[in-house]
Amino acid sequence: MNIVVAMKQIPDLQQIRIRNREPVLDAVPLTLGNIDKNALEAAVAFKESHGGKVTVLSAGSEDLEDTIKEALAAGADEAFLVLDDELDGADSEAIAGILGAALNRIEDKDLIIFGEGSGDNYSGQVGPRVAEILGIPLVTYASSIEINDKTAKVVRSLEDCEEIIELTLPAAVSVLAGINEPRIPSVTQILKAGKKPKEILEMDDLGLALAEKQVITLSNLAPESERKQILLKSADELVKALSSQSLIGR
Amino acid sequence: MMEKFDAIVVGAGLAGLASAYTLANEGMEVLVLERGDYPGAKNVTGGRLYVNPVRELFPDIWKKAPLERFIASEGVCMMAGERSVSINYAGNELLEEPYQSFSILRARFDRWLAKQAERKGAMLVDKSRVDDLIFEDGKVIGVRAAGDELHANVVIACDGVLSFIAEKAGLRRKVEAPNYAVGYKEIIELDPSQIEDRFGLEGNEGSARMYMGEVTKGKFGGGFLYTNKSSISLGIVIGIKDLMEEKPSIEAPVLLDEFKQRREIAGLIKGGETVEYSAHVIPEGGYKALNKLYGDGILVAGDAAGLAMNIGVTVRGMEYALASGYYAAQTVLQAKEKEDFSAAALSHYQTQMESSFILQDFKNFQEAPQVLENPRFFNHYPEMLGNIMKDIYEVPAGSKNRLYPTIKQYMAFSELWAMLGDMRKVMKI
Amino acid sequence: MAGILIYSDKNDYALELLTAARIITASSGLDVRALSINNDSQAEALAGAGAEVCKINNTAIALADASALANAIKQAVEKLDINTILLSSNLRGRELAGRLAQIIGTACLTGVSAVKLNGDKLECQRNALGGATVATQYIATEKKVIAIVPRSFEKAPAGTGKISELEVDVQATPGLKLVETKAKSEDSVDIEAAEVLVAVGQGLNSKDDLPMVEALVKALGGELACSKPVATDKKWLSEERIIGLSGKKCKPELAVLLGISGQVQFNVGIRDAGTIVAVNSDENAYVNKMADYVLVDDLHKVVAELNKILA
Ligand SMILES: Cc1cc2nc3c(=O)[nH]c(=O)nc-3n(C[C@H](O)[C@H](O)[C@H](O)COP(=O)(O)OP(=O)(O)OC[C@H]3O[C@@H](n4cnc5c(N)ncnc54)[C@H](O)[C@@H]3O)c2cc1C
Ligand SMILES: Cc1cc2nc3c(=O)[nH]c(=O)nc-3n(C[C@H](O)[C@H](O)[C@H](O)COP(=O)(O)OP(=O)(O)OC[C@H]3O[C@@H](n4cnc5c(N)ncnc54)[C@H](O)[C@@H]3O)c2cc1C
Ligand SMILES: Nc1ncnc2c1ncn2[C@@H]1O[C@H](COP(=O)(O)O)[C@@H](O)[C@H]1O
C-alpha cells in the first residue's frame, strides 16, 4: 500500500506579528500546515500497522527542501517536491494543476491524503480540484479512515450528519484536524530525515508554466480591535464592572 | 546502529553556534540541540556586540552577518529622582571601518549564524531539550533528549546561565544570588527615519546609551538603550541580591515601566510599538564565580561557564560566548587528533582561555563586582551631579551665587574623602 | 446577458445566497437564477422568496457524490449562461466549490463573508493567515465560483417566483458508495443567536466541572459554547457549540471566555462580541489582549465565586 500525502508549506502562524494592521511576514519561519500534519499522521499510522510506503508531495518555494524535513522526520519515507519561488501564494487552481501532474508521475499510489484546508489559506479547494483532475473518487472531511485491500471505508463528518462511504482504491481523502494527534519526532528521526530520498522537480520538468494569478488580493489587514483590557482582581470586581454596564442582572 | 558524533553541542546560542560552526568548518560531525522553536527564539541580550575581539576567529562571517547599526555615538546619563545629567560621546574613530561595535537582534542573528553552521555541515535540531547527560565510568559519553540517547566524543555545554548540563557534570558552582543579575528588555518598533531623527543619526549609524542612578533606585545596575535598524532595544539590569534585599521589595518590571515613562526616554520611544518583551538572568560574579570549564568528555562555554561581565551599566557576554565556543571547538579538534577526550586532554581549553582576551579580561576586572557593589555609584553620585547642575543652571529672581561656593557646598571635606576612597577602589578595576 | 446562479444543499443557506445575489445584481440588472437539485421543497421555498428556480430531478445525483453535483451545476451554468456561481461555504459547499471551479476551469473563493460589487470587480472578504487577517480579493476570470459563509446575509423575504425544470446528463461517480448516513446527536442550540455566551476551553479540568459552568450560564441567562478541542478532542460538548473558524461566528453582547488561550482560529468567531471577559490562569495568554475585562486566575475558583455572588 502506497500513500501520498499532500502538504503545504506556510509561514508559522504563531510567529506572525501584526503591525499597523498589516501582517509582518518578514523573517517568519516556515512550517507545514497543522491539518496537513494530521494527514501525514493518518498515513504513517497506517504504514506502521500494515506496511507500505508514505510519500509526501508538496509544491512551494526553494525553502521547501528544508521545511519538508519536518514531514520526513514525522514518518514520511520520501518526498516529491515541485520547487519554484512563485509557488508560495499561488492560486489553488495552479497548485492543483501541479499536484495533479506530479501525481501522474508517482506510479503506485493507492491513496492520496489531503488536509481539510491549508493552514494559511484554509480554502479547502485543492483536494477536490485534484480529484477532478485525476478522475478518482475523493471523500472530504474524514474523521476516520479504515483501509482494506482494495477499498477504504471513510467516515465523513459534516455539520449535522456523518456519512459512511466506501471508496474503491486508488482514491483520495481529506482529513479533519481532529482525526488524530500528530506525533512529535525524536532527535534521531529528525537526523535521519536529512538522509531520506527527495525527488525535486521544477515546473519545466512537469511541462508546466505558472499562469498569471486569477485571484487578486487588494488588501490583507488584521481586523481593528480596541479592547479595553482592564485587569480585574476578583470575581466581585467583575460582577460590579458588568453590572455597571447592565450586562448582567437584567 | 547508534550514531556517534564528534561533538554534541547543547544550546544554539552564540557559544553553541560558534563552536558548531568552527567544528563543522573542519569537517567534524557535530549535532546542536536547541530547546527553543528556533535558534535565538529564547535568547535575550541587551544588544551590543563588540566585534574586534572576535573578528579574526570567524573571518568569513562579518561581511554578511545581519548586524543592525554600527554604534557611532555613545551616551551615559546619570539619572537622579527629578533631574539627570548626560554625557554624549562622538569620535571620528567610531565612524571608521572596521566599526568597533554593533547593535544586534538575537532572533535574527542567531538564526542566521545557525544557517551558516548548517551550511558547513553542522546538524541542528530545534524544539528538543536535552534532559540529561549519559555517563560511562564517570565520563560523559552523550546526552538524553526527548527519550533519545545520543552519543558523542565530547559534549559542549552552551546552555546558558544556570547551565543544567554543567550542573549535571558537576562543573557548576553553587548558585548564589550576588553572582547573578536579571535583565528586562523590550524591543520597540519605530520607523528607521524616526530613529535617525530622534538620535541624530545618518544611514546605518547607531546610538548606544547607558542610564544609571534612579533607573534602578540607586541599586547596582542600570538601564540601556540601543538603536537597531527599525527598532529600539530598551531595558534594565539589576542585581538579584539588591532586588531581594530592598524593603519593600522592588519589582523589576515596574522599574522598567517607570524607566520608560521618564522624560529622558519617553520622547525617544514615543509612538513605538513593543513587539517583544523578555527577561533573563545574567551571570555577573566575574572571575571568582566562573564555573569549571572542562571535565571528562565535556566542555563548558559562554554564559554556561559564567562568562559574562557586568561593569555597572554595561553587560558584556556575547563576545565571550562566541570566543569561548571557538576555543572549545579548537580543543575538540586537538583532542580528536589524539583520540583522547579525557579531562586531561580537554584541559587544553583552560590553557587557551587563559591566554586569550577572555580570561585576561576577567582577571583584569576581577575586583569589579565588589567595587561596584558600592551603592554610592548608583545613588549618591547621580543625585549629587544632578543637584550641582541644577544650581549651576538656575537663575533665581535675585542675584545668582558665584559658582565656586555653589559647588563647594556639595564638596565638603567628608565628601571629598569618601570620593577619594571610591576612586581608589575604582582604580582596581 | 450572463447572470448569477445560486445553489446550496440547505434551504436556509440558499435563501441567504438569494439575498447576496440580489445585492450584487441590484445595480447591474443581471439575472439571478436559483438551482435546486433533487429537492422539491427547496424549489418551493426559493420560489416563495421570489426566485426564478431551475429544478433538477435526477436519480444519478446523490448528495454525497459532490463530483456528480458539480457536473450537474456545470451543465446548468452552460445552459443558463451564467458567469457567477454563489454556493454556501458549509462543508458540502466548500467541496463543491473546488470541484465546480476545476471543471469549469476557473478561479474560486471559499469562506467569503462579505461581497461588494466595485465597478466590474466583485470584491470578496475572507479570512486569511489562519484568521489573523481579513483579505479583500477578487477573481479576475470571467467566470467565478464564490462560496459564502452561512449566516453572512439575511434570508430573502417572501415574494413570487417561478419554477422550471432543467435536464442534465450526469453519471454517478464510480468507486464511491454511500453506505450509511447518521444524523449527529441532536443539539439544537443556536449559539449564534445568544446575547450572552459563556465559552469554555481546555483550561477546564474535566467534564465533571461542566455543571458549575452551566450554573453560571443560567445565572447570566446565556448559552454555553466552547473552543474546538473541547468538542472534537475531548467530546465534552457537541460540535454545535464550537466558536471559531471551523465553528460558529458569534456576536453576543457579552462573552465570558473561560480557560481559552485565544488563538486566532478561535478569535475569528468571537471578535465581534460587544464585551469580552477573559478568565485565564496565564497572565500572558493571548486571550487577555482581546478582552475588555481580564481576570488572571483559576477559572474553577472564579466560576464558583461568580455563582455564589450571582445566586
Ligand atoms: C538584559 C541583558 C542585556 C545584555 N546585554 C548585553 C550586551 O549588550 N552585550 C553583550 O555582549 N552581552 C549582553 N548580555 C549578555 C549576553 O546576552 C549573554 O552573555 C550571551 O547571550 C550568552 O550567550 P550563550 O550562547 O552563552 O547563552 P544563551 O544565548 O543564553 O544561549 C543558550 C541556549 O541554550 C538553550 N538551552 C538551554 N538549556 C537547554 C537544554 N537543556 N537543551 C537544549 N537547549 C538548551 C537556550 O534555549 C539558548 O538558546 C546581556 C544579557 C541580558 C540578559
Ligand atoms: C484550520 C484550523 C481551524 C481551527 N478552527 C478552530 C475553531 O473554529 N475554534 C477553535 O476554538 N479552535 C479552532 N482551531 C484550533 C485552535 O488553533 C486552538 O488549538 C484552540 O482554539 C485552542 O483551544 P483552547 O484555547 O481551549 O485550548 P488551549 O490552547 O490549550 O488553551 C487552554 C487555556 O486554558 C488556560 N488554563 C489552563 N488551566 C486553567 C485554569 N485552571 N484556569 C484558567 N485558565 C486555565 C491556559 O492558560 C490556556 O490559555 C482551529 C485550528 C486550525 C488549524
Ligand atoms: N502547495 C501545496 N503543496 C502540497 N499540498 C497542498 C498545497 N496546497 C494545498 N495542499 C493540500 O491541499 C489541502 C487543502 O488546501 P487549501 O485548498 O489551500 O485549503 C491542504 O491541506 C494540503 O493537503
Which stretches of chain B are poorly predicted, pLDDT < 50 over at least 5 residues? Answer: none
Percent of residues of chain B in helical segments?
25-40%
**Structural class estimated from helices and strands of chain C:** alpha/beta
Count the beta strands of chain C. 15
Helical element count of chain B? 15
Sheet having the most strands of chain C: 9 strands, mixed
What does this protein structure show overall?
The complex is a heterotrimer of chains A (250), B (429) and C (311). Chain A is built from seven helices and 15 strands. Chain A has helices at 34-50, 64-67, 69-73, 92-105, 126-134, 187-193, 235-244, and strands at 2-6, 9-11, 17-19, 22-24, 30-32, 53-60, 78-83, 111-115, 138-147, 151-157, 161-168, 171-175, 198-202, 215-221, 230-232. In chain A, strands 11-10-9-12-8-1-6-7-13 form a nine-stranded mixed β-sheet, with helices on both faces. A two-stranded antiparallel sheet of chain A has the order 2-5. By secondary structure, chain A is an alpha/beta fold. In chain B, strands 1, 2, 7, 8, 9, 10, 16 and 17 form an eight-stranded mixed β-sheet that branches. A seven-stranded mixed β-sheet of chain B has the order 5-4-12-13-14-11-15. In chain B, strand 16 (294-295) and strand 17 form a beta hairpin. With 429 residues, chain B is of the alpha/beta class. Chain C is 27% helix and 29% strand. In chain C, strand 5 (107-118) and strand 6 form a beta hairpin. The mean pLDDT of chain C is 94. The chains are: A alpha/beta (250), B alpha/beta (429), C alpha/beta (311). The interface between A and B is medium-sized, with 13 and 20 residues. Strand 15 (230-232) of chain A pairs parallel with strand 15 (293-296) of chain C. The structure holds flavin-adenine dinucleotide (FAD) (2 copies) and adenosine monophosphate (AMP). Residues 6-8, 33, 35-36, 39, 57-60, 92, 95, 99, 114-115, 117-118, 121-127 of chain A line the site of adenosine monophosphate.
